[in-house]
Amino acid sequence: MSDKVRETSSKAAMKELKEEYLRMLEESFQNTAEIKKGDVVEAPIVSISEQYLILNLGGKFDAYAEIGDFSDEKGVLHYKVGDNIKGYVVDQNDQGFVVGKSLTKQYVDKQSILDAYEKKIPVQGKIYSPTKGGFNVDILGARAFCPVSQVSLHPVEDTAQFIGKTMDFLVIECSENCRRLVVSHRQLAELLEKETKAAALENLQVGSTVKGTVMRMTSFGAFVELGGIEGLMHVSEISWQHVVKPQDELKIGQEMDVKILEIKGDKIALSRKALMENPFTLALAELHEGDTISCRILRLHNFGAFAELRPGVEGLIPVSEMSRNRNISHPREVLKEGALVEVQILRIDEDTRKISLSLKALQEDPWDKIDELVQLEQPFEGTVESSTNFGIFVTITDGVTGLLPRSRVRKTDNFKTGDKTTLMVTAIDKENHRITLDYTDRTADEVIEPRSRFEEHAPREQRSGGGDSSYRGDRGSSPRKGGGRGRSDEEWRKYANQKAAPSEDNPFKDL
Question: Which of 16, 94, 125, 361 has the fewest CB atoms inside 10 Å of its own CB, making it the most exposed?
Answer without folding.
Answer: 94
